[in-house]
Amino acid sequence: MAAPDSAPQLGTLTWLPAADHLELLGQPVAAALPSLTGPAWVASIDDEAADTAAFTDVYEVPAAASANCVVVAARRSGETTLAACLVLATTRADVNGLVRRHLGARKASFAPQDVAVAESGMAYGGITPVGLPASWPVLVDAAVVASELVVIGSGTRGSKLAVSGAVLAGLPGAEVLEGLGQPIG
């Protein structure tokens, strides 16, 4: 990775200081940016290439350098709690096991798309842990935290953020969980 004050070299993208390009970010992400504990970089992308498989193919960013944020609805005794799970793109979140147990829920599942969008204030396919409501637990896989630099959503489908795993561990409501991301297949 590049020094903190110089743009990273990651894939074929041009990374810019996110604080200087708030127009590329979703509103909740732009509002939360000043509270980050380290640098954040943003790159403009084609919104048709926002989904992980297309993104990694088009922009030559390794899947291991990308993280997916999924919104989970955890239910217990008629109450629903929304939480975000952040795992490397090479894994899947253990929603029905670790997440359900950690949140003390009877049942946990992916939140419906319309609920995830409405409650996060972000575009589907661009939801990111930066700028989520303060009441949401943000569960971050230990492998993400160990990443020197990881690409995440930006609140929109038209850009991506790059931040260190340590920055993600420092987000409000963040809880680092070993084994949150499980191998795919």
What does this structure look like?
The protein is built from six helices and eleven strands. The radius of gyration is 15 Å and the shape is globular. The strands form three sheets. Strands 6-3-4-7-10 form a five-stranded mixed beta sheet. The chain has a four-stranded antiparallel beta sheet with strand order 1-2-9-8. Helices cover 21% and strands 29% of the residues. The two termini are 30 Å apart. By secondary structure, the protein is an alpha+beta fold.
Keywords, separated by commas or semicolons:
185 residues, four-stranded antiparallel beta sheet, alpha+beta, single chain, five-stranded mixed beta sheet, 11 strands
Give a quick precis of the structure.
The chain has 185 residues and is an alpha+beta fold. It contains six helices and eleven strands.
What is the topological layout?
Blueprint: E1 16-17, H1 27-32, E2 41-44, H2 52-59, E3 67-76, E4 79-88, E5 91-93, H3 95-102, E6 107-110, H4 113-120, E7 138-141, H5 142-145, E8 150-153, E9 159-163, H6 165-169, E10 174-177, E11 181-183
Parallel strand pairs: 4-7, 7-10
Antiparallel strand pairs: 1-2, 2-9, 3-4, 3-6, 5-11, 8-9
Radius of gyration using CA atoms only = 15 Å
Mean pLDDT: 94
Any idea what the shape is?
globular
Structural class: alpha+beta
Helix percentage range? 10-25%
Question: What's the total count of β strands?
Answer: 11
> Whole-Å distance between the termini?
30 Å
SS summary, helix count? 6
User: Which spans of ≥5 residues are poorly predicted at pLDDT below 50?
Assistant: none
| Element pattern in H and E | EHEHEEEHEHEHEEHEE
Strand content: 25-35%
Largest sheet: 5 strands, mixed
What topology, given as strand order, has the largest sheet?
A: 6-3-4-7-10
